[in-house]
Amino acid sequence: MNGDVKPMQKYNISGLAIPQLTVLTGALMVFLGLVFFVHTDYLTALFPTLFGGLLLFAGIVSVRRPDLNALSMHIAVVASLVSTALGLTSALFGTWTTTTSLVEQLLMSAITGAHLYVCIAAYRFGKARFPDDSQTCGIDVEAVAERTKSPGPVSVVAISLE
């Protein structure tokens, strides 16, 4: 790597990049669904497994095919959003049948809600800082600092109506 080029910082949580965290979240959701299914024998206890499978798929695709990162992470965000919304609405509006299913819905919402929050934070971290910048997966901190120190020439155009 050239000495002048600095690698961009990536958004990490405990050393995990977002695709890796998505795989971990998916595995947790699959585990949650299987544990509650074994415990209750209710087929609906497998809902977290469905969302976990989507998250696992999206995370693995993103890790193995970085060129599909944007698509796979959008799939992961939608899966987390829907899972969080379904879990919270069923918990709040009382569509659960047992206290055990309420606990499962709340756990599902907490896990995917945390994943959704981290994904949004990662998006904001990599968001373009200036109008002519492109969206990135991380920030070149030195370039941002340099641009804020010397923003460049400013042009003013005056229009007279006389």
Largest sheet: 2 strands, antiparallel
In percent, how much strand structure appears in the residues? under 5%
Indicate the overall shape.
Answer: elongated
Helix share, percent: 55-70%
Strand tally is 4
Number of domains: 1
The low-confidence runs, each spanning 5 or more residues with pLDDT under 50, are 1-8
Word description of this protein:
This protein is mainly α and 162 residues long. The protein has one domain (9-149). The protein is 63% helix and 5% strand. The protein is built from five helices and four strands, in the order E-E-E-H-H-H-H-E-H. It has helices at residues 18-40, 47-64, 69-92, 99-126, 141-149; strands at residues 9-10, 12-13, 16-17, 138-139. The strands form two sheets. It has a two-stranded antiparallel ribbon. Strands 2-3 form a two-stranded antiparallel sheet. Strand 2 and strand 3 form a beta hairpin. Helix 1 packs antiparallel against helix 2, helix 2 (47-64) packs antiparallel against helix 3 (69-92) and helix 3 (69-92) packs antiparallel against helix 4. The longest helix is centred in the C-terminal third of the chain and has 28 residues, at 99-126. Residues 1-8 have low confidence and may be disordered.
Explain briefly what this protein structure is.
The protein has 162 residues and is mainly alpha-helical.
